[in-house]
Amino acid sequence: MNKHPIVRNKRTVPISVLAMMAAMPASQAVADPVTEAIRNGEASLSARYRYEFVDQDGIPNDAHASTIKTKLGYRTGKVSGFSGFLEAESVTAIGSENFASPTNNVSNHPVVADPTETEINQAYLRYQGLADTDIKYGRQLFTLDNHRFVGHVGWRQNEQTFDAATVVNKSLADTTLTAGYIHNVNRLVSEAAGPRGDDGMQSGIFNARYDGLSAGSLTAYSYLLDYDSLDAASTSSYGLRFTGDTALGDSAKALYTLEYAQQSDYADNPNSFDTDYYLIEGGIQASGVTVKLGQELLGSDDGNAAFQTPLATLHAMNGWTDKFLGTPANGLVDTYASIGGKAGGIKLMAIHHQFESDTANQDYGTETGVLAAKPLNETYTLGFKAASYSADDFSVDTDKAWLWVSANF
């Protein structure tokens, strides 16, 4: 299959978008609306300081990462349905880098995947001149469903964004149709990490959600990932997802999610495989407390290949110690229980995972995580999170803890 990569580095799309904006006619009739759009725009500023601790068996020193992320953006007003958005993002280490990252060449500390770099995070043109339709072209952040297949990895200091064209349409009643063409993934490890900071691809995504059912929402999707250089990562995934809730009396409700997908080799992938995915989750919400039980399978094709979701917000899946950012060849079965709620305005959550393989009868290990987050006011939020992974047949014992404060101005 012929490859036609469009983006080779993180500067191409922002420069092309800015060039398109600069090339607009300079006549008075056009200049006045453009000037007004810029004047009527809106700036955004946010920052997040975070301390991360990692104690991992087999590595002589613990990791102590103190980093701050700042984002500065500007969204223009509209001109004949067109608008633009530009956002810069910077991640800076505070003090000594006593942690390994994709860019600092440290090897005697555990990894903290928050490399230091300043880059263009988003830069896109937007058109909203058609009824119930939103079109974007350029570097953009977008997520689908619960981030399992397409996400922005917002937990990490450097977000994942996409150089893409996307269309979202809501013309049909209770229906949201999302289609996109991705030609580059700006990964959280950053461009400074080398070739894997950018994953060139020619990938199509489609997601159709129907919200007209009283019991919940039904979603059908297909994700066709065709990598330029990573042929073995090219896959096609097709699935269905149903999620909703039902009242149980006046003060409680039942929560439920069912999802199934199939994944196969795609495009120039040299391997041949078929794998399955499912998510079964149920819960109860009452008196401000939510309890959930669930099981997620990322299946294996007899140990030769496993179901992968490389564009996901992976930190949110299968444990906060990030042991399963890539699915092991023998697959993964994650059985979990969680409880969450609020006390004194503090968001509280605890979750426990039991990890096993899909084939070969391996007991990977267990993980327990806790979280507390408190909005101090409309601008500042303070948070704490910790997780402990106890290894059996996979990886090593690992403890992680985070303390952060974020600000949105």
Walk me through what this model shows.
With 409 residues, the protein is mainly beta. The chain has one domain (12-408): Porin. It is built from two helices and 18 strands. It has an 18-stranded antiparallel β-barrel. Strand 14 (332-343) and strand 15 (346-356) form a beta hairpin. It is globular. The model is unreliable at 1-11 and 24-29 (pLDDT under 50).
Fourth-tier CATH superfamily name: Porin
CATH architecture: Beta Barrel
Q: What shape does the CA trace take? A: globular
Look at the helices and sheets and give the structural class. mainly beta
The portion of residues assigned to helices is under 10%
Strand percentage, roughly?
Answer: over 45%
User: Which fold name fills CATH's third level, the topology?
Assistant: Porin
Biggest sheet features: 18 strands, antiparallel, barrel
Rg of Cα set: 22 Å
CATH class: Mainly Beta
Mean pLDDT: 93
Name the helix and strand elements from N-terminus to C-terminus, one letter apiece.
HHEEEEEEEEEEEEEEEEEE
How many alpha or pi helices? 2
**Alpha carbon gap, first and last residue:** 47 Å
Low-confidence stretches: 1-11, 24-29
Total beta strand runs: 18
Instruction: Please indicate the count of domains.
Output: 1
Domain Alginate export: 105-167
Keywords: Signal
Pfam family, one: Alginate_exp
Organism: Halospina denitrificans
